[in-house]
Each structure stands twice: as C-alpha cells, then as structure tokens.
Protein 1
Amino acid sequence: MKLISIVVPCYNEQEVLPLFYEEIQKIMQQMKDEHPELAFELVFIDDGSRDKTLTLLREMALKDERVRYISFSRNFGKEAGMFAGLENSRGDYVVVMDADLQHPPAFLPKMYNFVKDGEYDCATTRRVSRKGESKVRSAFARLFYKIMNQISQTEIVDGAQDFRFMTRQMVNAILDMKEYNRFSKGIFSWVGFKTRYIEYENVERPAGTSSWSFWGLFRYSLEGIMAFSTAPLMIGVILGIIACIIGLILLIVWIVQAVDGDVMRWQTGLMCALFLIGGLQMFCTGVASQYLAKTYMESKHRPIYLMRENEEIYRARHQAEIQEN
Ligand code: UDP
Ligand code: MG
C-alpha cells in the first residue's frame, strides 16, 4: 500500500470546496483504478475561515473516512496552513494544492508517474501564462522574480507554484525548516531534490475570490526577499562608501576654500554633508533593523500555527452526542 496525502489550505472557500471535493474524488478513483496499491487521505486546513468552510469540512469528515482536517484558532496565513498540513500528513507521498481548482486535480496522475519510480522527488506545475490576472500584478510579479533571482542564492522559478507532489523524504526536509517567516517558494527550492516542472496555462477560479490584495502580495514578496537574501544589507554598505567619498571630496573643497579665505561656502558644504550622512545613517540603521526584527521574531520560537479542532476531536464529539441522545 502507498498512501498519498493531499494537503489543501482553505480560507473562506465555502463556494469552491464542494466543487473541489467532487473533482478530487473523481481523480482519486481514477488513480486507484490505474494503481490499485494507492490509498488516499485528504488533509484540509481551515485557516480561521469566517464562512461555512469548517461546517463543510465537518460534514465531509463524518461521511468520508479519508477526510481529515485541522482548524486553526485564527487566520495564520497560507504558509502556516501548508506547514500544518505537511506536519500532520501521514502519506508516503504528499500533495499540496489550493482549494480553488486553480491547481487542476487532473495533473495528479501525471505527477505521480514522475515521482513513483524514484527518478524525481517532486513534480510541480509552472504557469507559462498569467491569463486572467491584472497587468499591473503580472508586471510586479515579473519584477519580483527578477530582483529575487539577482540577489539571492536560492533560485525561484518564475511561474512556479505551491502545487507540489512530493516524496516523504522531501516533505521531512521541508519540515526540518522550522523558521517562522515562511516563504514556501524559497523553501521548496532551498531543500533541493530533483524537481520536474510541468508547464500549463493559468486557470481562473470557478468561484470565490482570491484573498490576496495587491498590498498583501507586496508584503509577501518583501518577506521572500528578506527570508532568502541578505543583499539589502549591502545597499547600506555601498551607500556608506559613496557617502564617505562625497565627504572626502567636501573636505578637500573645504580646505581649498579655507585657503582662499571664502568662509560662507564651506559652511553650506558642511551642512550638506551633515544632512547627507545623517540621512544615510538613518537608512542603513533602517535596513539593519529590518533584519533585527526578523531575528527577533525567529528567536521567540513561536508556534507556526495553533489548532482549535481536527477531525478526530469532531468525530469523538459527534459520537458522544449520538450516545447521549
Ligand atoms: N489561503 C489560506 N490562508 C490564507 C489565504 C489563502 O489557506 O490566509 C488558501 C486559499 O483558500 C487557497 C490558497 O490558499 O486554497 C490560495 O489562495 P488564493 O486563491 O486566494 O490565492 P491566489 O490563487 O490568488 O494566489
Ligand atoms: Mg487561487
């Protein structure tokens, strides 16, 4: 028997969840027909949804043995959701995919074929188009990948997604990375292993809306840069050197002017230098403090997520209720 865990982070997905469940059931059946040795479990993460997501998950867990879920005490973000799913999955293979069908379940048999013989440790998709996405968003995404790959040692593939079919070995490697500021695109790449990319056209959501605002994505990309590169620290160093050179030039100008007996002009020069260096100092301290802030957060060793309820707790409660009545 080979168990495949399908990890699905869900945040306010009441509209697509039934569609997703229907689709994934078909695919699981299809895969089981082809490979009778396969068994499945679905690990849903309710990331503090405010809609009926949890209710739907409870219903599914009662009806379907394969359905498991973890419900967070509040919204911890998709990264925490994925981590919780990986940590609680029991499969020999683990799939991570979105609930919104933007990661088509139809790819799963193909992905399994790449991974099953041990040639690859991971199969994933890569969007070759960003059809259906706003122009501004696509442009910023491209810019992000460009900057990221310039300044970081870890390669982040443009269009790569959090839709992954992984071996247990790779999942354990990812779980060993316990950092609090998680940036999965970087983590998947950092752990290495042999990854097979399957290219496809972007698919739009059939229902519900994306929970990413532009500002949210912007913050997330800064997070990514900070988590996987210390290059921004270099900005301070380089600007510092430039400031010193300007300072030296001003010093020479001042000496020359003092010899000429021109008093006013060197005072202006001095003011200028004062502002320049003061500003730069502030900037550099700012950059450094950003990293300090990250270190501060990491050093707290906070849990990445907190569970409020899972399928076991709910099933037990449900049983107890039945017995009472
Ligand atoms: N998601 C989550 N927690 C969040 C935001 C999103 O678990 O705080 C889930 C969401 O339910 C979906 C996946 O992450 O399954 C991708 O989210 P979304 O479709 O909003 O992002 P996009 O596809 O626009 O990148
Ligand atoms: Mg989506």
Protein 2
Amino acid sequence: MKVLVINSGSSSIKYRLFDAKDYSMLAMGLLERIGEPGSRLSHHWRGPTGEFTETVYDRRIQNHREGLMLVDSAIAESGILGSCSELFGVGHRVVHGGETFYEPTVIDAAVVDAIRKLAPLAPLHNPANLMGIEASLEHMPGVPQVAVFDTAFHHKMPPHAFHYALPSDMYAKYHVRRYGFHGTSHEYVAGKVAVHIGKPLEELNIITLHLGNGASASAIRGGRSIDTSMGMTPLEGLVMGTRCGDLDPAVSFYLGRSTGKSGEELESMLNHESGLRGICGLNDMREIQRLADRGETRARLAFDMFCYRVKKYIGAYYAVLGRVDVVVFTGGIGENSPDVRKDSCKGLEGLGIIVDDKRNNSHGDGICEIQKEEGSVRLLVVQTNEELAIARQTMQKIRSLNTG
Ligand code: AMP
C-alpha cells in the first residue's frame, strides 16, 4: 500500500508518494501554472534500481481536477501505482486550522465546510488548499483523506503568547489571535533532535528556526510549542523571501493614506513584494549572498536584516525558555547557508551559542552539530521533511480509525 501527500496552492500541486511500509519515497512532483498558459508537470519517480528519473508533461491544465488526473496518469505511467485502490490514504497540507482543528482530521463534507469557513483568516492559503482537497475527493472517492494543519503544533501556546493586545472582543468575535504556522516542520525537527541526542523530548528546551522562503522560529519546551514568530497569518515574525515579517501596524494605515493603495493591494505588497525581495529585488538567498559578497549594498542589507531578525528571535526565545539545550536550523536557507547560521548566532556567545566555523562550513546531509566544544547550547542543522511528517500522521490517523 502507498500514501500520497498533496500540498495544493492556488495554481500549483506539489505531491509525494510514499511506500506505506517504510515511508520510502516512490515519486514526487510539482505541477505549476494551473489555469494559466504554460502549465507544466515535473514528475520524478523511483525506478527499480532506486534512481529517480524526471518526466516532464507540458500541457494546458484548466483546474485542479484536471491537474490531479495528470498527476495520476504520470504516476501510473511510471508504473508505481496501478490504481487508487493501492492507496492507503491521502494526506493534505492545510495551512490554517484556526481554533477548530488541532490534530490530523479525516476529511468529509463537514470538514471541507469548516476549512472553508476559516478562509477569511487565511484568504491566501485555505481556498488554495481546498481546491486540491475537493479535486482529490472527487477524483479518489473511496480513498480516506486526511487534513494535516500547519497551525496544529502551536495550539497549546499559552494565552499570554497567543493573544494580541487588542480589545478583547476582537478575539471573541473575530478570532484574532496568534496561531503560528510551519508546525509540521517545527514538530518534525524537534522529534529528530531528541532521537539524535538520545534524550526524551519532554526533557528538552529547543529553539527551532525554519528558514526558507517562508521563515519562522519556535520556542519548544518539553515537545510543546510555547511561542512562535508567525501570528494570525504567516506574515508576522522573521524577514522572509517576500513577506515583511514584524511591522508597526501603523505603517499599513500610513501607506494606505499616502499611496492610495487599497487594503487588498497593501496585503499583497506585504506578502509578495516585501521581505528580501522588497529590500534588494531578489528572494533567492543564494543570489543575495553572492551579490552581498561582491559588495552590492542592497543585497548586503537584505542579508544583514534577515540574520539580525533571526538573532533577535533566538534571544527572545532564550528568555522565554530560560534554558536552551538546542538551537535547530532547518528549511532551504537554514540547512544550506553556513553564512546565515553564523551571522544569526554572532554575538550570542555569552548565551553559550558558539558556532564552530569548520563544522558549520563542512556539514553534509542528515543531522549535523555545528557548535564549538565550549558552547553550552548544541547547534544542529536538521533536514526538514514536512511531506514525510504528513504521510506519517495520515497513516496514524487512518490506522487509529481502523483499530478504534
Ligand atoms: P525553502 O522555502 O525551504 O525551499 O527554501 C528556499 C530558500 O532556500 C531560497 O531562498 C533559496 O535561495 C534558499 N537556499 C537553498 N539553497 C541554498 C544555499 N546553498 N545557500 C543559501 N540559500 C539557499
């Protein structure tokens, strides 16, 4: 049996197919530009020797349902799945679970409805996730489907961490609070850390830094997220690829008045044209580092602002946790940029956070320790794997139904 994981965006479908026995990956792919000219599926599948082969399908795809049919036929053509009856289940990434969902949830019509009702809190994400879910329910009607929420891991944050200092009926009536995101990744890497250092998660205080195009930090005590940098939406917190992160709310009102931009236009600017891209025109950290190293001042500023904000959150979460055993770097930037790791920790030696340059520069795949011997905090680079975590949670949920 196999398990399929789907991460659906407004014009894209990312997927991974795992063997349900050992969670080895059988196929992965990305379909882009759904409903636009130039739709393209890049499908990677594992052959009998274990090597992955890429097949590309260029054809017009009108909607997510057609998209899933193409994914299905790409998987079938590569000979790794005969029919949907070989699927134990399908796991869907859903960005916002609000206060309704805090564990993996089997999807039925009522759940679809509830996710839709959360759309006002997450207009950029939940409707896009739902397009994939609805297409998948239609296309694979007999297969159990499970929603795994990005917010779920943070749902036990204490009230003093999740509330905003706003009039209380803004929470009571409109559910305005901090929810946090990237939960699947923060939880996954924290679990990996505990196994790696051979201590129960319950005994560890960890700061996890998920640094990718989206970026967030989390303070984890005893396996539980007690604070995180993203808020009601993924806009708050760290500087990101295209999102501004922390911002004086008055900036939005001021910009509304002085530029004449509508609320929607401002929301789009803060989400898509800000962050690293806003500062220097680029959101690929590799390019930014290359230009910064050549002395390009805007790229240098973007790099410095990114690392400075990470450092501020490390300091804040050190204070929140009181004692820190491990700081984890993960995500595309956290896993691959020694310079970002080094600069984010610069000046934190007094907290026992000391990067060893040689270890930091030479780390390979898997989990690596990059602290100096004399540092009291272990600094780990851990590869995240949100899709694998979703596959596992999907399987566990379906198994619990079958046995319960
Ligand atoms: P993610 O969203 O987790 O896929 O991460 C994407 C980000 O990782 C992009 O900003 C990439 O530029 C960045 N990234 C990937 N590889 C490297 C690298 N070797 N050095 C610096 N940044 C990297």
